[in-house]
Please model this.
Amino acid sequence: MEVVVTGIGLVSALGMLETSWRRLKAGESAITVRQPFPELSPRPLALVGAIPSYLTPLIEKAVGEAVVDAGLVTPLPEFSVVLGSSRSYQGEWEQLRNNPNLDSWLDTLPHMGAIVAARQIGATGAILAPMAACATGIWAIAQAALLIQTGQSQQVLAGAVEAPITPLTLAGFDRMGASAKTGCYPFDKAREGLVLGEGGAILVLESLASAQQRQARIYGKISGFGFSADGYHVSAPEVGSKSAIAAIQQCLDRSQLHPSDIDYIHAHGTSTPLNDRNEAQLIQSLFPQVPVSSTKGATGHTLGASGALGVAFSLMALQEQVLPPCVGLQETEFNLNLVKKADSHPLKHILCFSFGFGGQNAVLALTEGWK
Model:
C-alpha cells in the first residue's frame, strides 16, 4: 500500500514551515550566542523564542499547522499518532528536582507528547511514542507508514519534537567535548561541534487511496526505510560505517531504488569532526556525485526531531524542485557534491539520513508526489 504525505507542520528557530523554508533557501541561520542559564557560559543556540521553550507548546504549534496544511478539520477520531522525542519532558523534570511539585508529574512522562497531540486532534487510533536518540524522527515516520501499510490506520499524524535546551543537556554535550564555540558548520574544515536547537516537524500521512478520495495535495511518497544498530559505542559511530550502509541498503531495497536513482541526500551532518568525517566517507563510497546538504547550520541540532525536520525540508524540496543549502559551509575537506546555495534541480528520489547515539541508524526514502 502506498503511503503519501498530505500535510506538514514545522516549528524551528527559523520560524514555522513557510518562513523556515524561505529563510533556509536564503542561507540564513537562526543560531545566535545566548546564555539562558547563568550557571553555564554563553554559547551558540537555536532558540524558537527569547528563552528556552517547553515541549507541549511546540507540539501544539506543529500539530495545528499540519492539520490546517492538510486541509483537515478536527476532531479526527480515525487518526493514529506516532510522535517521538529523545528528550521529551526532561526540562520539566530538571525543574521538578529543584521545585518538587508532583501534582502534574504524570503530564511529564516520556510518552505524554504523543498523548498531547492525540488529544489536540481527537485521535482514538494507535498512539505510539518512539525514542531512538537522533534517529527518533525518521523512526516515527516509518512506524506511521507501517500502520498504514498493515491496514491498521488510513491516516496518521507522525513526527518528532524536541525542547532540548536544558542545563543537563548542555552540560552533557560540553563534557563530551561535542559543543561548538561559535556556530554550526556541517562538513566544513572549520567545524567545531554541534549547536543545539529547538523545534520539530509533524506530518500527515495517508494511504494514497485516502488522499485521492479527499483530493488532498500530495507532497511526496514514503518509498521505504531502513534501520540498523552499530553495537559499537555509546556515542561514536562505527568505523567503516558497516551498519549504516546496511540501513541504506535496506531502504534502497524496500524502495526498489538503486544508488544511481537518488537525486539528493539530506545528510545528518552534525558539524562534529568525527561524525561528519564518517558520514562523508560513507556518502563518497555509495553516492559520489549526488548533491548533499545538512540543514543543521540553519536550525541547530534538534536531536530526535532532526530527522523529521530533514524529511519536512526534503518534501518542500520535492515540491519546489529546489536543493536546500548546507548553511555555514565555507570550505570543505571532503570530495562531496555539497550544496552551498539553494539551486533548482530535478528531484524525484531523496534519501534522508539520521545517525543517533548508541549507533542507531535510520534512512528514509521519499519520492516525488502525484500532481
Summary: Residues 3-213 form a domain with the Peroxisomal Thiolase; Chain A, domain 1 fold (CATH 3.40.47.10).
